[in-house]
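task queued by scheduler; priority normal; single chain, no ligands, no partner chains; default sampling; output format set to structure tokens
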Amino acid sequence: MRRPSGLPALLTVLTFGSSLAQPLFAPPILSPNASSVWTTGSVQSVRWDNGGLDIPPNKHGEVVLGYYDPLDDDPGSGHEYYDQPLANGFLVSDEVVNVVVPNTIPSGHYYYILLLGDVRNQSAVFSINNPASPSTLTTNLTFPSTISVGGAPSATVSHWSPSGTGTGTSPLTSAGTTSPSAGSTSATSTATQTNGTSDGRKLSASCIPGFFLSALLVLLAM
């Protein structure tokens, strides 16, 4: 009896493995940057640069606040409020979205922004000033597990030149449209701890996982 061909299964494995190796876009975040100082309760614009990236126009994003706790045993481990994004549902092609800075976090140079959704990247560490909690002494430092996320007015969509990278001050043209803001929510959330950052303009899987390779070898032997 003729042995069945493994070609259909082989094509399935190759197609699935190829989908895993699709690039993950990482547009650099222009604002906030290392010199930024946000004030709690204020409206701030998060801006990023899609220049040189072929990002489809229907991709959506999410903005999450994170921080480094200097009192951690590993100060390089970040904590993120994934359950309470500052903004979501906006188009990545807008290159801007407005957020309201939570008013329950302490002052200090500990914070960063994650741009997530159909893209991924992390901003530089920047400062937030809380007038109700101006002290930056680490001995009195306590980060809340609950942040209040409010709705921000829509942002005017502009596009930014590469020369503006890291400054957020070089608009090329104004699209005359607005980017939707975050919805108004408030809930209890425990910040999730992570390690490392996502750098570069485009990330790609380095290889197909080992079990796919094993499957390929088995199918080729059929």
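post-processing summary
- The first strand starts at residue 24 and ends at 25.
- The CA atoms of residues 192 and 199 lie 20 Å apart.
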